[in-house]
């Protein structure tokens, strides 16, 4: 690998001189002169200390493909059109198209800043204890027997992604089954998170393109034929990307099937409160499973429902059969976390804890949360009405039937490309739009674009 | 809720399910974090925590730097919602890498590097380890003996095997330089070596400038990949530039290094998890490619780092007044540590300890690698309520004017109580 080069001539830079002198010192027994090394030993192979730059050991590294969701925003930012619309990433926007900091978050943050007694010490490996307790109560219900019996271990993690990854790494190490079933389709990052954690990923049928609703039969068949003990990823509410959720009755059937096959539920709860506007209603699926006394995992994110996207606040809970087991599981979770990032970040969790523990702030939060959810529901109705008013061919009722931030429009990738090119509408190529990116002002433009795409592009 | 279920449903309740986690054993406690836990459990008024390397003032209290308070007041409420505004993150990365590579560094100006923010030093090391595994799957990492205990966990969990190289000489309590050089020479060409650029953790023993030049030269001959874990810039000499000297030597020798940086200690931002990983490349295009791969790895682990800490660091480093204030505050912290070193050494000498304690002031950084045996460490905890890691590493930031005499007495007690151990220490102390 080392090229044979002659010494460079006329080299003036002192680092090179120093290196060459160092080289000479090693090769000759007497101390070297301080003169340039040019006129000495010509049989030296100079490559280790020459100015010639070796190739980086990473020169074979290729550019990674862009994340499809974040790539949408990148493309949007480049577009100079004044009517451009970003319906890609699921971050909430106001009617004015601006990001939103919840008032209650501002208040909590100001409290933290003003409290001069606060310090920036390391959190414990599993994070802020109060945050963990409050998070468990939020998802499982304050009166959950699992909590009261100390059968739940909750660890603070970096938003939903971090909670999923820590949970999956724990399963890959300690659980007897290394296959996880994810719905088809699911959030694009799910398969990557699970695969890198050491699990193998399979899918179960979920979305029915024909009805733009749930393929319940297919779901039951696929889960029914999964090997006993397999892990099953369930979106707690507001399925991403389809917005299609099982009804409570369907959830009950899913629960019965899973318990009979000893399948392990792993909930991803990223939209609690955002789907219906009610925190309790949006946690029903999870609580149903916990109520039957069985075990499960739940990943929670505060990115959307508290608008804390960038602060990376989340929690992983594992509900166990006994308090003793929960304690052992918690100790093993620490071993996953410590070599990953040692301990979680303090800021976001402190904000969440401040809000959840204070009755007034909590109440204010629920109001702001409902307002966000209501605005999204209103956008759904407006878009549906606008399409019907234009006589756009097709049944658009799924727009109001689907739940949460996203609508799976049913548009194909050609139609999506058309809409981006002609109407400057940015969305993921699977036809998913983020309703949070819409406003009353921009609904007509989107409706025009969809109408054009459906009538002109097949 | 069970009473609302039908009897059919109740038969399917999971009371008879396999308990999935019965086989899960309780995990061993982390050696460093476990010390703090033991300390908290102790109710003695005399207790001293010399475990984790988190800075304390002379009253034994954690501090918040003034520059951080100012930055925080400035950014409160002006939050960035999405996972990192690109401008903020690249600003923070640029300012961070300038600290290690130099304000006028060509490498930085020409963009010949890949830089990403990371979850403090741990996160930066883990990102690199995962990247190393992905693109050099057959490689291993050479770690100094001893090193921070979590280094072993990090590379193990990234599935990169580790090997030790000689570093600390327990007899001289200094650097085992010749053995270190031998290990560099004997390792296969193109090996990955982890180096602490200053204030080595746990030993506090750093190579001299000449020794660094030799290490750099030998690494160049062997085409090794040098990876620096810079966790204590500013805590070795008080001078940020001086503490980066080792890295600059390697840059002058045109190594394409990797570097993990932590702002936990020198900005007292432990809980915010702010750090940076950089890898030097041949050109900016390669830098972009490497960066994209690092982001992919991060994205499947935690998405992106928390924005609050990133904003704080970026604000402080980009604002000349705040940066000057920060540099001064780092010096102040170090001066207190150095004063405690001097005081502890003097106290032990005044107690007529037969042992040689000059290493207290010879070693640099936050830690004093005391040479105390595990038995002596246990005795200190048991009888004196003084807590440190089993390897005898003492975090000097836990020492105050108020407790230094108590500590000196305690150390004196345990080191003269065992004749055998004392004899050994005496013989090698000179």
Strand content of chain A: 5-15%
List the strand order in the largest sheet of chain A.
Answer: 2-10-9-8-7-3-4
CATH superfamily of the largest domain in chain A: Type I PLP-dependent aspartate aminotransferase-like (Major domain)
Spans of at least 5 consecutive residues with low confidence of chain A: 1-14, 28-52
Protein chains sharing the most extensive interface: A-B, 99 and 95 residues
What number of structural domains do the residues of chain A give?
Answer: 2
Number of strands of chain B: 13
Q: Under CATH, the topology of the largest domain in chain A is which?
A: Aspartate Aminotransferase, domain 2
What level of helicity do the residues of chain B show?
A: 40-55%
CATH class group of the largest domain in chain A: Alpha Beta
Mean pLDDT of chain B: 89
DSSP helix count of chain B?
18
Structural class category of chain A: alpha/beta
Tell me, what's the shape of chain B?
A: globular
Main sheet makeup of chain A = 7 strands, mixed
Strand runs of chain A, count: 13
Number of helices of chain A: 16
Q: How much of the residues of chain B is beta strand, in percent?
A: 5-15%
């Amino acid at each position: 690998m080392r090229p044979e080069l002659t010494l460079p001539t006329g080299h003036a830079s002192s680092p090179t001189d120093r290196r060459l002198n160092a080289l000479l010192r090693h090769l000759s027994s007497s101390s070297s002169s301080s003169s340039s090394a040019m006129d000495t030993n010509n049989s030296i192979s100079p490559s280790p200390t020459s100015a010639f730059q070796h190739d980086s050991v990473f020169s074979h590294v290729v550019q990674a493909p862009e994340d499809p969701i974040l790539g949408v925003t990148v493309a949007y930012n480049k577009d100079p059109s004044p009517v451009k619309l970003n319906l890609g990433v699921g971050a909430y926007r106001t009617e004015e198209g601006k990001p939103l900091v919840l008032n209650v978050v501002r208040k909590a943050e100001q409290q933290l800043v003003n409290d001069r007694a606060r310090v920036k010490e390391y959190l414990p490996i599993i994070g802020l204890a109060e945050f963990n307790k409050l998070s468990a109560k939020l998802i499982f219900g304050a009166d959950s027997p699992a909590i009261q019996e100390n059968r739940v271990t909750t660890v603070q993690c970096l938003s939903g992604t971090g909670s999923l990854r820590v949970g999956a790494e724990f399963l890959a190490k300690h659980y007897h089954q290394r296959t996880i079933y994810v719905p088809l389709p699911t959030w694009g990052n799910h398969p990557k998170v699970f695969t890198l954690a050491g699990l193998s990923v399979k899918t179960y049928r979920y979305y029915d393109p024909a009805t733009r609703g749930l393929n319940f039969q297919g779901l039951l068949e696929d889960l029914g034929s999964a090997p006993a003990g397999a892990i099953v990823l369930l979106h707690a509410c507001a399925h991403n990307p389809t917005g299609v959720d099982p009804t409570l009755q369907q959830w009950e059937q899913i629960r019965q099937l899973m318990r009979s096959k000893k399948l392990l539920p792993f909930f991803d709860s990223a939209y609690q409160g955002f789907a219906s506007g009610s925190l309790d209603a949006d946690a029903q699926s999870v609580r149903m499973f916990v109520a039957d006394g069985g075990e499960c995992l739940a990943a929670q994110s505060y990115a959307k429902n508290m608008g804390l996207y960038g602060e990376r606040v989340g929690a992983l809970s594992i509900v166990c059969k006994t308090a003793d087991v929960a304690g052992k599981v918690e100790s093993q979770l620490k071993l996953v976390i410590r070599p990953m990032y040692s301990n979680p970040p303090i800021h976001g969790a402190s904000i969440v804890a401040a809000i959840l523990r204070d009755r007034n702030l909590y109440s204010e939060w629920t109001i702001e949360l409902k307002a966000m959810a209501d605005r999204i529901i209103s956008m759904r109705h407006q878009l549906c009405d606008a399409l019907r008013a234009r006589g756009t061919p097709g049944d658009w009722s799924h727009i109001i039937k689907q739940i949460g931030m996203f609508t799976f429009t049913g548009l194909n990738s050609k139609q999506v490309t058309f809409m981006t090119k002609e109407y400057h509408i940015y969305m993921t190529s699977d036809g998913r739009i983020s309703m949070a990116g819409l406003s009353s002002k921009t609904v007509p433009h989107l409706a025009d674009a969809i109408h054009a795409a459906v009538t002109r592009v097949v | 809720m069970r009473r609302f279920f039908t009897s059919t449903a109740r038969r399917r309740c999971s009371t008879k399910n396999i308990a999935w986690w019965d086989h899960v054993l309780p995990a061993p406690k982390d050696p460093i974090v476990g010390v703090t836990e033991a300390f908290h459990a102790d109710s003695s008024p005399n207790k001293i925590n010399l475990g984790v390397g988190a800075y304390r003032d002379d009253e034994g209290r954690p501090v918040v730097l003034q520059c951080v308070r100012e930055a925080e007041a400035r950014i409160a409420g002006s939050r960035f919602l999405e996972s990192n505004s690109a401008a903020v993150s690249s600003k923070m990365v640029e300012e961070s890498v300038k600290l290690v590579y130099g304000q006028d560094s060509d490498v930085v100006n020409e963009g010949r590097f890949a830089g990403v923010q990371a979850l403090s030093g741990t996160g930066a090391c883990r990102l690199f380890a995962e990247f190393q595994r992905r693109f050099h799957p057959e490689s291993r990492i050479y770690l100094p003996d001893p090193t921070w205990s979590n280094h072993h966990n990090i590379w193990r969990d990234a599935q990169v095997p580790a090997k030790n190289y000689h570093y600390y000489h327990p007899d001289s309590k200094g650097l085992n330089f010749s053995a270190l050089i031998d290990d560099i020479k004997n390792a296969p060409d193109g090996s990955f070596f982890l180096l602490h650029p200053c204030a080595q953790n746990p030993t506090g023993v750093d190579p001299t400038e000449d020794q660094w030049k030799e290490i750099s030269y030998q690494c160049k001959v062997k085409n090794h990949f040098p990876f620096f874990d810079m966790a204590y810039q500013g805590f070795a000499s008080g001078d940020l530039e001086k503490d980066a000297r080792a890295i600059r030597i390697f840059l002058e020798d045109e190594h394409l290094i990797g570097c993990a940086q932590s702002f936990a200690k020198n900005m007292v931002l432990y809980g915010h998890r702010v750090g940076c990983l950089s890898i030097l490349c041949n050109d900016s295009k390669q830098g972009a490619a490497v960066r994209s791969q690092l982001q992919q790895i991060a994205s499947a682990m935690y998405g992106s780092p928390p924005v609050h800490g990133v904003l704080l660091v970026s604000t402080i480093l980009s604002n000349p007044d705040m940066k000057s204030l920060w540099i001064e505050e780092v010096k102040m912290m170090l001066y207190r540590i150095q004063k405690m070193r001097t005081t502890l050494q003097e106290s032990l000498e005044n107690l007529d300890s037969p042992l040689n304690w000059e290493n207290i002031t010879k070693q640099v950084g936050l830690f004093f690698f005391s040479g105390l045996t595990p038995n002596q460490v246990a005795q200190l905890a048991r009888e004196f309520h003084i807590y440190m890691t089993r390897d005898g590493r003492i975090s000097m930031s836990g020492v105050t004017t108020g407790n230094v005499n108590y500590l000196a007495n305690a150390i004196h007690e345990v080191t003269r109580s065992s004749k055998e151990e004392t004899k050994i220490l005496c013989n090698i102390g000179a």
